[in-house]
């Protein structure tokens, strides 16, 4: 029996080694620095297959692991080299698009000094970009560019000034008589008002769509939606009223007073990803006279009975990644259409709860707004 067990263990070890060798051999050695690297930094790197390779300088460490994904789920163990650096490659290719990650050194969580940081998981996290096959729509091109500016608006309800980022389309500063519709676009849980322009490339998506003549130019406004802090897993404790007050009573009046907007519900939209979708749904239903265009991006769905007066709603846009079980939004869209709503669904191919899904969703939604 012992000989049999030893034989099985030996065969298993050979099989494992063989699989590892095959896996390693299958990795194409055409790695290039990630587009989000700090200036002059070689690592992290990405190859044409979507594998990521990391290199961390930590000569006194006993263990180094890279945790990928929102919140740092999963991990890639790095091996120590003779020069004291730690190097490792993901076991398989990653999904296309943007990913948060952090570095665990001897049990401590740190950011990778080789790459830029992005606010996610309620902290500044490292970010890596796996080039997408359709990345051209959010690429930086030689086209007229809009302007993204930070504004500080008074918020009596929170007894402070709050921050928003406002995208104005190309030509806004020159066409001083033209007024524009506005999309209020919300981030997800653990992120902030920087997410849509930094991780989402919303400004570049807009610039490219406008340059191609595919959309009517409009303004985008991003602001912080976490007016009452809750921890992950306790979203049921989130109260919408404080943020609703900030958005409806403070931010929108400020934007209408300080930017050339068409200050009418028929020219105002609200959309959000994930938790921002939950905020969008709740606020649009609570305040049906404020917005005429609704967008939930991996953020739930509307039912026909949710909306009391469908004549006020010009568009309901629902989207998700194909890995997010999108059947529910497809079914919800069908029911909305049958009830007489202008409802559109979009499913991002081969993506999950991640920014490539939401970049593509904005690309699909933007041409439908303000028709």
UniProtKB/TrEMBL annotation:
InterPro entries with a match to the protein in the record: AB_hydrolase_fold (IPR029058), Esterase-like (IPR000801), Ig-like_fold (IPR013783), Mycobacterial_A85_antigen (IPR050583)
Residues of the signal peptide: 1-21
Species for this entry: Runella slithyformis (strain ATCC 29530 / DSM 19594 / LMG 11500 / NCIMB 11436 / LSU 4)
Protein name (record): Esterase
Keyword Transmembrane appears in the UniProt entry: no
Domain of life: Bacteria
Keyword Acetylation: no
SUPFAM superfamilies: alpha/beta-Hydrolases
GO MF annotations, alphabetized: acyltransferase activity, transferring groups other than amino-acyl groups
Pfam families: Esterase
Annotated coiled-coil segments of the chain: none
Entry keywords, A to Z: Plasmid, Signal
């Amino acid at each position: 029996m012992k000989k049999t067990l030893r034989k099985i263990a030996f065969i298993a070890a050979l099989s494992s080694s063989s699989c590892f060798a095959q896996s390693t051999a299958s990795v194409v050695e055409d790695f290039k620095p990630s587009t989000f690297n700090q200036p002059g930094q070689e690592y992290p790197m990405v190859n044409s297959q979507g594998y990521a390779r990391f290199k961390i300088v930590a000569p006194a460490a006993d263990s180094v692991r890279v945790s990928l994904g929102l919140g740092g789920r999963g991990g890639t163990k790095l091996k120590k080299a003779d020069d004291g650096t730690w190097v490792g490659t993901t076991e398989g290719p990653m999904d296309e698009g943007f990913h948060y990650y952090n570095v665990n050194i001897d049990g401590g969580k740190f950011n990778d000094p080789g790459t830029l940081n992005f606010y996610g998981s309620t902290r500044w996290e490292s970010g890596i970009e796996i080039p997408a096959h359709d990345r051209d729509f959010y690429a930086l091109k030689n086209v007229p560019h809009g302007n993204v500016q930070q504004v500080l608006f008074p918020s009596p309800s929170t007894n402070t000034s709050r921050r928003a980022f406002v995208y104005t389309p190309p030509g806004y500063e020159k066409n001083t008589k033209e007024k524009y519709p506005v999309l209020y676009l919300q981030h997800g849980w653990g992120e902030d008002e920087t997410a849509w322009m930094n991780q989402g490339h919303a400004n570049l998506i807009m610039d490219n769509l406008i340059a191609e003549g595919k959309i009517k130019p409009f303004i985008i406004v991003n602001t912080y939606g976490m007016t009452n802090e809750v921890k992950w897993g306790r979203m049921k404790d989130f109260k919408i009223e404080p943020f609703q007050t900030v958005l409806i009573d403070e931010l929108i009046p400020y934007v209408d007073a300080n930017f050339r907007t068409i200050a009418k519900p028929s020219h105002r939209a609200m959309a959000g990803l994930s938790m921002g979708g939950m905020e969008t749904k709740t606020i649009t239903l609570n305040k049906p006279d404020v917005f005429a265009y609704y967008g939930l991006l991996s953020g739930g769905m509307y039912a026909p009975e949710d909306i009391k007066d469908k004549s006020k709603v010009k568009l309901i846009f629902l989207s998700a990644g194909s890995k997010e079980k999108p059947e529910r939004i497809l079914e919800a869209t069908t029911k909305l259409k049958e009830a007489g709503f202008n409802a559109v669904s979009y499913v991002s191919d081969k993506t999950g709860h991640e920014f490539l899904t939401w970049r593509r969703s904005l690309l699909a939604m933007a041409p439908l707004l303000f028709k």
